[in-house]
Amino acid sequence: MGRLLPLFGFLALFALLGFGIWWNQYHETNEIPSPLIGKHAPEFTLPLLDNAQKSISEQSLRGEPYLLNVFASWCVACEEEHPVLTQYAPQLGVKLIGYNYKDQPDDAKRWLARFGNPYALTIADLPGSVAIDFGVYAAPESFLVDASGVIRYKRIGPFTAQIIEQELKPMIAKLSSSATP
Amino acid sequence: MKPYLTLLLLALVLCCSSAQAIDPLPFKDRAEELRFQLLTKQLRCPLCQNESLADSQAGVAKDLRQKVFAMMQAGQSDEQIKTFLTDRYSNFVLYDPPLKGGTLLLWFGPLAALITGGFALLLIVRRRARQAVVVSTTTASEEDW
C-alpha cells in the first residue's frame, strides 16, 4: 500500500490535468458570466442609427421579446457573425435589434449597406456609456430580452448556426412557453 | 559627478511616473490621483483579463477608467464604485474576489493543499526517523558483537 502511494498521487495529478483540458474545451475561460441575467435590462435612451433625431428607450421596447445584438464596423468577428444573423433573423420569432457600439454612424451605415441589414431597428451608442450598464466589453455580444424587459440570455462572441440551434432557439422557445401560461 | 547622477536618476523616475498615466484626467490634487491609481490597479480589465484597468489600452478599459473617475468626482466611495462594476461585469473585475460560498476553494484551496502536504511530509519524516533508529540500533548491536 505504502509503495503504491506515489502512483496514486501521480494518478490524482494526471486526473486533475485531464479535467483541466476537458473543461477548457467546453468552457470559454475568457467569458465573463453576466450578473444581469434574470434582471431587468438597464434603462437607456439612445438615438437611432439612421435618424439621430429620434431616440429609442428601454421602456418603448417592452411588450415583445427582442434580441439585442451589439455590433460595430470595426469588429472583425461581427463580419463573421453577420451572415448567420441575417439568415436566422426571419425564423427566430423575436425582433432583432442592432446595437451599434462605439462606432462612427457613417462607418456603421456603410457597413450595413455592404453586408445587409437584418435589424428591425438599430440604436447607436457612440460613447459606449450605456454599454457599460449592459456589461458589454467587446463586440459582438447579444442579449435576449423578454417581453417584460428582463434579460434572459447573453451570448459573448459571434453566433454560429450551431449555437443558434443549440442555445438561442431553446431559450426563445422557453420565452414563449412562459409567456402563455 | 554625484549630484549629476542624482539628477539623472530623478529625471528618469519622473519621466517613468508620467508615462504611467495613459489618458490624462483632470485630477484636482495628487491625493485624488493616487486614489484613482490605487483603485484602478485593483480592478481587472474585462476584455484583456491579464491587465488591470490602470494598465489596459483596450477601449472598454478607457471607458471604465473614465466612469470610475466620474464616479469619484460625484463623491462615490471605492466600495460603491466596485459594487457598480461587479453589478455589471461580475466578480471577474476584482483582483480580490469576495469571500463567499463560491469562492471558498479559491481562498482556502492553497492553504488546504499546504496543510495536506505538510501532514504528508510530517508522516514520511517520522516514519523514516523511526526506521533510521531501528537501523542504527541494529547496526550498533552488530558492531558490539
Automatic annotation (TrEMBL), chain A:
Domain Thioredoxin: 35-177
Protein name (database record): DsbE family thiol:disulfide interchange protein
GO cellular component terms, A-Z: outer membrane-bounded periplasmic space; plasma membrane
UniProt similarity note: Belongs to the thioredoxin family. DsbE subfamily.
Transmembrane region(s): none
MF term (GO), any: disulfide oxidoreductase activity
Major localisation: membrane
UniProt xrefs under Pfam families: Redoxin
Subcellular location: Cell inner membrane
InterPro entries listed in its UniProt record: Periplasmic_diS_OxRdtase_DsbE, Redoxin, Thioredoxin-like_sf, Thioredoxin_CS, Thioredoxin_domain, Thioredoxin_ResA/DsbE_sf
Keyword vocabulary terms for this entry: Cytochrome c-type biogenesis, Disulfide bond, Redox-active center
Annotated signal peptide: none
Species assigned in the record: Pseudolysobacter antarcticus
GO biological process entries: cytochrome complex assembly
Membrane-related topology note: Single-pass membrane protein
UniProtKB/TrEMBL annotation, chain B:
Iron is among the record's keywords: yes
Protein origin, superkingdom: Bacteria
GO cellular component, one term: plasma membrane
Regions that span the bilayer: 104-125
Pfam families: CcmH
Domain CcmH/CycL/Ccl2/NrfF N-terminal: 9-142
GO biological process terms held by the UniProt record: cytochrome complex assembly
Keywords: Cytochrome c-type biogenesis, Heme, Iron, Membrane, Metal-binding, Signal, Transmembrane, Transmembrane helix
Molecular function terms from GO: metal ion binding
Signal peptide: 1-21
Keyword DNA damage appears in the UniProt entry: no
Alphabetical list of Gene3D superfamilies matching this protein: Cytochrome C biogenesis protein (1.10.8.640)
Job description of the protein: Possible subunit of a heme lyase.
Family recorded in the similarity comment: Belongs to the CcmH/CycL/Ccl2/NrfF family.
Protein name from the UniProt record: Cytochrome c-type biogenesis protein
Species assigned in the record: Pseudolysobacter antarcticus
